[in-house]
Design brief:
This protein is α+β, with helices and mostly antiparallel strands and 167 residues long. It has a single domain, classed as Gcn5-related N-acetyltransferase (GNAT) (Aminopeptidase, 3-Layer(aba) Sandwich), CATH 3.40.630.30. The protein is globular and about 40 Å long. Bound molecules: coenzyme A.
């Protein structure tokens, strides 16, 4: 299944699809700290700030449809000591869950990180995002930090976890 997806860099034309997928994640109340889906201008700026040879955004395509994406980001703004670290954030269209999309994207990201000389990959996850934590566990990510009760969603406080692995 994993091999049915084409990996490529995200383009401006993908923004409606990326925003729709992110909007689904926002509405779950467990996948991101955003409580509202960002607007078109904000999304354009977000993508423009991700440089292909530094902190790219990759999409998974199936039959021409964008079904998920994985965005790399600099950690702490890319300060020198952290130049070999990236944060990964990934979102899959809900109608494509459990079909290997996130896995294929993560395989691709890990391979690309070698080329970028990235040594550590981290992700920030809300403690009640069981699906993402299970997914990360399968990729060898381990708990590297817990920020207690940092998030508040619908009046409930949740810990923010940092999971990481070496590339
Ligand atoms: C987490 C998420 C990205 C997983 O994407 P996916 O494409 O469904 O994942 P895959 O099909 O590659 O799953 C690989 C493995 O991860 C684990 N996994 C994935 N979803 C899971 C779930 N809901 N519950 C338990 N384990 C899960 C399983 O071990 C799975 O293997 P299996 O299907 O053979 O059992 C997806 O649920 C999603 O987009 N969630 C909303 C956004 C989000 O939470 N993003 C992460 C923010 S930190």
């Amino acid at each position: 299944m994993k091999n049915n997806y084409r990996m490529r860099l995200a383009r401006q034309e993908d923004l409606p699809a990326l925003t729709a997928i992110y909007g689904q994640a926002v509405r779950t109340g467990r996948a991101t700290g955003d409580l509202e889906t960002p607007g078109a201008e904000q999304q354009r700026d977000w993508l423009a700030a991700h440089l292909p040879d530094r902190d790219p955004v990759y999409v998974a395509e199936h039959s021409g449809e964008v079904v998920g994406y994985n965005a790399l980001s600099l950690y702490r703004g890319g300060r020198g000591a952290f130049r070999r670290t990236r944060e990964t954030s990934y979102y899959v269209d809900s109608s494509w869950h459990r079909r290997g999309v996130a896995s294929r994207l993560m395989d691709h990201v890990l391979a690309e990180c070698v080329g970028f000389q990235v040594r550590s990959l981290i992700t920030f996850v809300l403690a009640h995002n069981e699906a993402s934590i299970a997914f990360l566990g399968g990729y060898g990510f381990r708990l590297w930090g817990r920020l207690p009760a940092l998030a508040e969603i619908s009046g409930v406080a949740y810990d923010h976890l940092i999971l990481g692995r070496r590339v």
